[in-house]
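Q: Can someone sanity-check these two? First one:
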Amino acid sequence: MIADAEHMLLRWYAVVAGGLVATYLAWPYDLRQWPFLAVTLGVAVPAVVSALRRTPGAARAPWWLMLASLGLYNVGNVVWILIATTGGRVTGDGSVADLFYSAGGVLLLAASIAVVRRQGRGDVGGVLDSMITAVALGGVLWDAVLLPALTRQDASVGRQVSLFVTVIVIVGTLGAMLRISLVSPAGRTASVRLFTAGVALALAGNVAAALTIDANGVRPDWTNNVFLAAYAILGAAAVHPSVAMVNRLGRAPKDDLTRGRLTFLGVMLVLTPLIGGGRAILGLPTDGVLIALSSAALVPLVMVRVARLAAQRRAAEQALHRLATRDGLTGLANRGACLDHLSAALDEDSHDLTVLFCDLDGFKPVNDRLGHAAGDELLVAVADRLRTCVRGDDLVSRFGGDEFVLICRGPEAVDVVAARIAELTGRPFTAAGEQVHIGISVGAARARPADTIDALLNRADMAMYEAKKSKSVGALSLIVV
């Protein structure tokens, strides 16, 4: 029922907004401000309000920002309608309306970044990518296309600054939407695609408006049709049923320090100086201040981005190392890590090296009676206590099942560690809410010259079995060989 209502709302929106956009140029020139305001104020704004009403409280930030953005754009539109129509001709921009357009663009960028952060669970990398894209591609568009046109038109400084800010923030918004498309399932929805298309049309409208102004400062009114289409499509993104996917919390993106990502960052870093330098060599107008400022901004941004990617790569490698060397249940060193440690210890110096092979007594009855979950709880408790038995340079590992291997150094290692193990067996353990008593059989083998890993472990293992034959549950039995 709700889905049907949403599709009906979208159809009505498409008819009304599409009709106004399609017939805009057919209206009498003196009346065209009315279909323009009907779309920007009477259609697009209510569409965003409807998205705001359908969005849970925690996810409303992007839509509040977008609503505020459209509000500023509409203030600029009203100001523009009041002061930018003279003698039946639409003059070039450059009025106070540009201030509202620039501020609206900044809030639209903030809305897209809010979506990026929500879809990526605080995706700082996506925000940095958006900023890098804005500075690099926006700078190229400005230096190679817009600045030469504004120079020929002898545009005012205010007009140049306003258009520069507008272009940078719109390109940054497109970069943010591209980030969503690449890392989030929401990026494949019609709502995100419509939003991206609306922003792209806004950029096209600004470029067209800048390039088509004639010598008298007049631009053709069809450029307003492009802006009108941008408003209508942005509103369609808000009323489309797939907006529900955008409102959901996404998953953290996987950021890898790949060759493709490094290539992207490298290209963004050299793009503006390369284009600007090429234009300077050809004697074409070039904004030297822009090149200097963009380089000053891009270098630290790219360095921070690479540093974050490198840190994430190190964290991933460390996580893989932990998975490869740690027992998943107890967090102790696993069998492979134990063997590696023992091999290194034998290669370094076998003097005063002792291996203690430990096997739990009474574990199987507890596991059978209380269940595997209780058995796992008991193994974790034993592991925690064994950690307290070893000294700083010793190693405690889970060798498999209910077997643990300790690797110790020092002439008194066996006596000290065995005393601590005896103390831990004297206290009951808790498993599945019950107190249970278990014992530990320990076989200790001191390393001999030319010992191999297998020989040392086998002696400790055999000593453990000898100890097991002569003990009772709840006590420690130790045999040293």
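And here is the second, same format, sequence then tokens:
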Amino acid sequence: MSKKEQWSSKIGFILAAAGSAIGLGAIWKFPYMAGTNGGGVFFLLFIFFTIVIGAPILIAEFYIGRSTQKDAVSAFRKLAPHSPWYWVGIVGVISAFIILSFYSVVGGWILSYLTRSVTGGLSGKTQEQYSELFQSVINQPSEVLITQFIFMIMTILVVQGGIQKGIERVSKYMMPALFILFIILVIRSITLDGAMEGVSFLLKPDWSLLTADTFLLALGQAFFALSIGVSIMITYASYLGKNEDMPRSALSVAGLNIFISLLAGLVIFPAVFAFGFEPDAGPGLVFVVLPAVFNEMAFGGVFFFVFLILLLFATLTSAFSILEIVVAAFTKGDPTKRKRFAWITGALIFLTGIPSALSFGVLSDVQIAGRSIFDFADFITSNIGMPLGAFFISLFVGFRMKKLDVFNEVSNGSTISKTLFQCWYVAVKYIAPIAIVLIFLRSLGII
């Protein structure tokens, strides 16, 4: 049996896990969610729920992964043999497979915009023309398939290299680069005339905008931004050494996710307000409004190119983790099988994603439950698969595992006190499941 792969360092694990969590959720989704839901009040609730709900579930996934040193499916089989709990892992792997099939499509859009940024195709347009450009990009069958294919090749090439030589090595370069690029863009954005109005919008809560809907949407954003629920972090933690401090690592990942969300807001909102645009543009904020915003500033083309590079890095680090959970499920910890299964599963994911890529063009008339193919794949994973996965992970750790065994594993390598452990345990066993049920009911339109 080949030796089990492991992260070479704690910082390598944290950067890789943070890269998985950050992705499009923090840089693409957070700004438009905050922009349409009150800015500062949404951000404050997002921070609260990330710490109180997200981080505890993250530690629960770390516990399952590190205690077993197994992939998502095998981990449940080891902890609860002769029981149906392993289906939580199976559903997680299937969800990850589907997520990457349409996530890679968005990665392709970013590559399309990067190409146009280099060739000058993104300069000198009005917001209406940028909207038309975006529609043109996602409608072109050849372009979306070629860019999706390139994005998947980039992802496979890293994952096939393994944990240390592939994912960890690339994350150690990409994540610091991402932070540096963000700082450059934040400085440029907040020094614009009128930028402080955008800073105030993000950081000064207006409690008159607080509604039940804002409350639940912030809860959902905190939940999905951390990549919890599809057993990604179970897989990543399975490569973690027994003496690593899991609670501190989880808080580091959650903290970095909040920090990146803050930076994304400080890049986008000051610039949006400085040039008189509206912050509530929705999902088109990055692809339609931001090009128009950067077009208004000096050297805007260069800064938007930097932003697209940043967005690509974040998208790729998430893609690495999503493909890894699928590959790990097939290799069962045997690194000699990694390269073969990285290419096989990567190719299958690309083929599965073709209908999503074409769902805005030649397959735009195809509807599933009233949604496009792309939107349906997003809905069943983000609104059903992930909440259910996290719900059962919480129940599994809270009710199926012995409390003493959980404490011994979580406290191994950590200085966590029994009081803090008890607070975490209550959050996982009771608070998190109730919160997840609320998110789930809200996503289905029941509440």
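A (reply): Looked at the second one. DSSP finds 17 helices and no strands in the chain. Residues 10-443 form a domain with the Amino acid/polyamine transporter I fold (CATH 1.20.1740.10).
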